[in-house]
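Anyone opening a protein record will find just a pair of labelled lines. The record below illustrates this layout.
***
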Amino acid sequence: MEKNCKLAILVFVSCFFQFLNAQAQTAGTSSKEYHPVFCQLTEQDKHDYVLTAGQPHPVTRDTMIKKLAPGLFHVYQQKVEVLVIPVTLSNKSKDTLRYIAMSCSSWDSYQTDDLQITIIPPNTPCYKNGPDIITMLPYSSSTVNLRIAIPKKLGKGMVFKMGMILPKYVNKSQGLFFSRSQPGNVIWSDEIQAL
């Protein structure tokens, strides 16, 4: 079973990159293989684009959730406390910000600095999910309420940061691609203390 899952993932990734290559060749951007370009955030960008997190509010206590073990195809149950945190992205620059995020699973753009603290996806249906371009006008902000799960074993008073993956979209020659593995494109909030 585990071998079949890994094979299915490899086939999917291979097909996805073949699709991207075909799209790039059709658009005339390249006759060679397509390689997505990630524009790294500069120090000025990290100053202009600010992530702030509000005070977390407990939603439930002693909740059991199913989690996927890191690097494995193994599900286990864990007792957690669920909190809601308002997270605000602010564009403090005089320029319009355009960045790439997933159209349906927008929570994929967010993370915490502690791998034990996870973001819980909302229970809303998702029928089509792909990279999308989000536009933020100068001196504007946008807030989302994220549900996070903190393991009970960590106890109260846990201190952590919220992060947002912010791949800037410059032009269509870079491709429309979102990846969670872009450490240079993460902006962090100040520290938050769980109640």
Summary: The chain has two domains: 1-35, 39-193. The helical segments are 2-27, 43-48.
